[in-house]
Design goal:
The complex is a heterodimer. Helix content of chain A is 56%, strand content 0%. By secondary structure, chain A is mainly alpha-helical. In chain A, α5 packs antiparallel against α6. Chain A is flat and about 50 Å long. By secondary structure, chain B is of the alpha+beta class. Chain B folds into 4 domains: 95 residues, Penicillin-binding protein 1b domain (Penicillin-binding protein 1b fold, 2-Layer Sandwich); 192 residues, Biosynthetic peptidoglycan transglycosylase-like (Penicillin binding protein transpeptidase fold, Orthogonal Bundle), CATH 1.10.3810; 292 residues, 3-Layer(aba) Sandwich (Beta-lactamase); 54 residues, no CATH class. Chain B is 39% helix and 19% strand. Chain B is built from 24 helices and 33 strands. In chain B, α10 packs across α11. The longest helix of chain B is centred in the N-terminal third of the chain and has 45 residues. Classes of the chains: A mainly alpha, B alpha+beta. At the A-B interface, α2, α3 and α5 of A face α3, α15, β27 and α22 of B.
């Protein structure tokens, strides 16, 4: 009975996460992607069998859209960098999270995890994806994994206080459900300080 | 007997006495008796033989589970707006997955004009659901997918292309096949097969004497074998139970077994087995059996998608897959196909117009075999070792399992290119190399190279070359130190001066820097980024070897770690894959993420067998790891890794560490960007000396790889409990951002310097404190 109550608490925190997640969906992905300059990777040509005509190689043309961005300003010695928060979730990943939500609503935690792992590959630095994974693992009763994914999410929450708070509260609920009352209190007081 | 009488010579003519006559009659009777007995014996033997053959036929056919090889797939390419892929890489992926250039509207074709693609996907049964057929339109700009649109098919913001098959795990006899079911085939296929090979298939009982007679007549007329009279049942029996030798006994057995087969089994059973058994080509040592695989092999299409002219070609090839090989002998194959189309028309399977159109079409064979075996031997080797944990070898070879791996073909191409080209440039032919690439946050192994020749399926250095890691161990020593913020920060001054350790057994150890110099005091961050030896040994001895050892173990090494201080300089042997495993935790703020090569394994029919999920396990304080990551970024910008930026543009922020062992026996580089972690080893198999260092041997391979792949910069998210401060490192004090010697550095909260100084190095805080005291 105790455990059931704990689960309910975990889900309440998860709802907070879901709200945050949707808020995050509005903006696009984080940093611009690095575009390789110079050589393009060439596929190894699979062995051509006799009689098959060899297609003429396309001439190597640099299209303007494929040019690497201007890098003049950054050519000087850089300094180690950091940032205040993780990535927002691109629309594709948010779509998969939505599918996962539907699956979880139907009680299919395992299928939700496969969707969320796809979302994680697309948005590996989005705290919200890890909180969702945590929620799915709570559902399948794997609280150890759930705790770890919450911690991973928290490591990417950065200065985003709303993400931080929901992460710490989620962690507190999971810890309490696992019988770690001291750990739960610690997480709660961490959330309260925000 | 009459004849015998007639042959008697006339000269010996004598009237036969009665006695003699009786003797002849009794001899005749005896002869008939013997003959009868012989016939009975023959019948008895034949019956026995039939019983034996019957047992053969039923046992083989009853247990006719084909041994179907397991199929190994690359990860499917996911397309969505913003997906990182270059136009060239997309084209490669399409080719690997068996797409062909075309109008982009026929299933399995694509059209490219500049960065714009039209793709018509075939759909695929993934373990987590079916990906339907779709027509897609997208463009690629700045190595990202833009404006992905589903033109036809169910709409979605994200679609998966069918994955490329990258390998197979074959039965000992090397027969490859994709099983098909009769009720799921295009009806035209069995009909065409019967029209050509066995018109009376549904009427005969295994053999067709009339056909045999007709064939014999035709052969006599032509003066050679031009026609066979074998039924489909006989052909199946021949392939299934008998050798290829052409003897009368074998022919007899074939006929008997065919009759027996028909007695026991239905026509559709026999036909379905035939369709899966028939030999239709060869790819190296792998033999192509059955129409299901032949369709993939010759057209890169599913059997149910083939058009009449393609079905006709496959049916025609039954007669001689090598002689009518459409890739080698397109003219012969075309003539044979058209003959089959004629026969299909005669049998009423095709109307005149359709047959005419089909005859006018080109063969439609794909340019190349849709996949070549063993293109990625090192990677498949790792996959097989992972599979061996949960599956028996015999099941992998025969159960037709589907193995979904994490291989990223574009990364693999870039990795192979980086190794082969850099090693060729380094010159020494005895040099070998290994490269492991993983997705930083998921632990998926994306590419693997096991030697300078990536096609050679021999010694896999990425998995089996256990070599000393040298300075790659240093980040773990410093991490153990930085985890004690009250004792160590990035600016803690360390002694870069020589010292001697005397052991109880009387031996003496005197470590040296790589350049043999001593620098007095150096701050911790610089000791790591410049990879000095003397300070790291001092720090390691201060915090304790046991602490360093347990840090390494927490990050996932299973190597034996010695209890001698030389382990602080990397006297620990690890394989490149193991190094990738322990660096994963450094790249992800202290989360150990087990490396994976397999996402899922399913049965042939798609039922899931195992899933290998993403796992994370926090093994270090993210705050301490963040500090370490600062120093590893500095390594790339100012330290031993800076030459990476001769190849990689500054815009791509990286972090990493070089490693070199004595006499250049091992050159290592391990490092990461925002998305990828890569580990390179370069050295000789005989453990011989080389003139190389981590920076001159391994780093060039690493940078060449990184420079080819679209990816995000490494800009770690500030973890809880860390704050950046402007500091004067030399004075170990906070200072003003404007000061020339000010450096912005991270500190675990509470461990930042307590005093503040001016640009000139004065101590304003102390003066103010004195004044404050005066007025209190």
């Amino acid at each position: 009975m105790m455990r059931v109550q704990m689960r309910a608490q975990v889900f309440r925190s998860a709802v907070v996460c879901a709200v945050l997640l949707l808020a995050g969906c509005a903006s696009g992905p984080g940093d611009g992607i690095y575009v390789p300059a110079g050589e393009r990777p060439q596929a190894p040509k699979p062995p051509l069998t006799d009689g098959a005509a060899k297609p003429a190689d396309e001439p190597q043309v640099w299209r303007k859209s494929e040019q690497p961005p201007e890098q003049k300003a950054q050519q000087q010695t850089g300094v180690p960098g950091y940032r205040e928060s993780g990535d927002q979730m691109p629309a594709a990943a948010a779509g998969l999270v939505k599918e996962a939500d539907t699956l979880m609503a139907q009680g299919n935690g395992a299928a939700a995890i496969t969707r969320l792992e796809r979302a994680q590959r697309i948005a590996p630095r989005s705290a919200a994806v890890y909180f969702k994974l945590s929620e799915a693992y709570v559902m399948t009763g794997q609280l150890g994994s759930a705790e770890q994914f919450t911690l991973k999410g928290l490591s990417l929450a950065g200065r985003d206080e709303r993400l931080q708070r929901s992460g710490w509260l989620l962690l507190a609920d999971i810890r309490r459900a696992r019988g770690n009352v001291a750990g739960a209190r610690q997480a709660e007081s961490r959330a309260a300080r925000l | 007997m009459k004849n015998t009488d007639k042959t008697r010579k006339p000269g010996r003519k004598k009237p036969a006495p009665r006695k003699q006559l009786a003797a002849v009659q009794s001899r005749r009777k005896g002869f008939w008796r013997i003959l009868l007995r012989l016939a009975l014996l023959g019948l008895f033997l034949l019956a026995g033989w039939m019983v034996y053959l019957d047992a053969q036929v039923t046992s083989r056919f009853e247990g006719r589970r084909f041994e179907v090889p397991s199929r190994v797939y690359a990860r499917p390419l996911e397309l969505y707006s913003g997906a990182p892929v270059s136009a060239a890489a997309l084209e490669q992926e399409l080719a690997l997955a068996g797409f062909h250039k075309g109008d982009g509207s026929r299933s399995g074709s694509y059209q490219r004009s500049g960065g714009r693609f039209l793709i018509s996907s075939r759909g695929f049964d993934f373990p987590d659901g079916k990906e339907p057929r779709r027509h897609l339109a997208l463009s690629i700009a700045g190595d990202q997918v833009q404006n992905l649109q589903v033109v036809k098919g169910p709409d979605s913001a994200i679609v998966r292309l069918e994955p490329a098959q990258i390998g197979g795990i074959y039965p000992a006899h090397q027969e490859d096949r994709i099983l098909v079911q009769l009720d799921k085939l295009p009806e035209l296929l069995p009909a065409a097969l019967m029209a050509v090979e066995d018109r009376r298939f549904y009427d005969h009982h295994g053999i067709a004497p009339l056909s045999i007679a007709r064939a014999m007549l035709a052969n006599v007329r032509a003066g050679g074998i031009v026609q066979g009279g074998s039924t489909l049942t006989q052909q199946l029996v021949k392939n299934f139970f008998l050798t290829r030798e052409q003897t009368l006994l074998r022919k007899g057995n074939e006929a008997l077994m065919s009759i027996l087969l028909e007695l026991h089994y239905s026509k559709s059973d026999i036909l379905e087995t035939y369709l899966n058994e028939v030999y239709l080509g060869q790819a190296g040592t792998r033999s192509i059996h059955g129409f299901g695989l032949a369709s993939q092999f010759y057209f890169a299409e599913a059997l149910e998608d083939l058009l009449p002219h393609q079905l006709a070609l496959l049916v025609g090839m039954v007669k001689g897959p090598s002689y009518y090989n459409p890739r080698r002998h397109p003219q012969r194959a075309t003539a044979r196909r058209n003959l089959v189309l004629d026969q299909m028309q005669q049998a009423g399977l095709l109307g005149e117009a359709d047959a005419q159109r089909a005859r006018s079409l080109p063969l439609g064979v794909s340019d190349k075999a849709s996949f070549s075996q063993n293109r990625y031997p090192a990677y498949i080797d790792l996959v097989r070792r992972h599979l061996a944990r949960d599956y028996k070898e015999e099941d992998l070879r025969s159960e037709g399992l589907r193995v979904f791996t994490t291989l990223n073909p574009a990364m693999q191409v870039a990795a192979e290119k980086a190794v082969t080209e850099t090693l060729a440039r380094l010159g020494d032919k005895a040099l070998e190399s290994a490269l492991v690439v993983t997705a930083k946050d998921s632990g998926e192994v994306l590419a693997l190279v096991g030697g300078r020749d990536p096609r050679y399926a021999g010694f896999n250095r990425a998995l089996d070359a256990s070599r000393q890691i040298g300075s790659l161990v240093k980040p773990f020593v410093y991490l153990a130190a930085l985890s004690q913020p009250q004792r160590y920060t990035l600016i803690t001054p360390l002694q870069d001066t020589r010292f001697t350790l005397k052991f109880e057994n009387g031996t003496v150890w005197q470590p040296k820097n790589y350049d043999g110099l001593e620098r007095g005091e150096v701050p911790l961050h610089q000791a790591l980024s410049k990879s000095y030896n003397l300070p790291v040994v001092r720090v390691g001895l201060d915090i304790g070897l046991a602490e360093v050892k347990s840090t390494l173990q927490a990050f996932g090494t299973d190597s034996a770690i010695s209890d001698y201080p030389s382990m602080l300089l990397g006297a620990v042997a690890m394989t490149p894959v193991n190094v990738a495993q322990i660096y994963q935790g450094l790249a992800t703020s202290g989360f150990n993420t087990p490396l994976r090569t397999i996402r899922e394994v399913t049965e042939a029919g798609g039922e899931p067998l195992s899933r290998y999920s993403l796992q994370v396990n926090q093994v270090a304080d993210p705050a301490a790891v963040h500090l370490l990551q600062y120093a590893m970024q500095e390594t790339m910008q100012e330290g031993t890794g800076r030459s990476a930026y001769n190849t990689v543009p500054r815009a791509l922020a990286l972090a990493g560490k070089t490693g070199t062992t004595d006499d250049g026996r091992d050159a290592w580089f391990a490092g990461f960007s925002g998305d990828l972690l890569a580990v390179v080893w370069v050295g000789r198999d005989d453990n011989g000396a080389t003139p190389l260092t981590g920076a001159s041997g391994a780093l060039p391979v690493w940078s060449k790889f990184m420079a080819q792949v679209p990816q995000n910069s490494f800009t770690p998210v500030l973890p809880d409990g860390v704050q950046y401060h402007w500091v004067n490192v030399q004075q170990q004090a906070l200072t003003d951002e404007q000061c020339e010697n000010a450096r912005l550095m991270p500190f675990i909260i509470g461990s930042e310097p307590k005093q503040t100084i001016t640009c000139a190095g004065a101590l304003p805080q102390k003066i103010r404190g004195w004044f404050e005291g005066l007025f209190q």
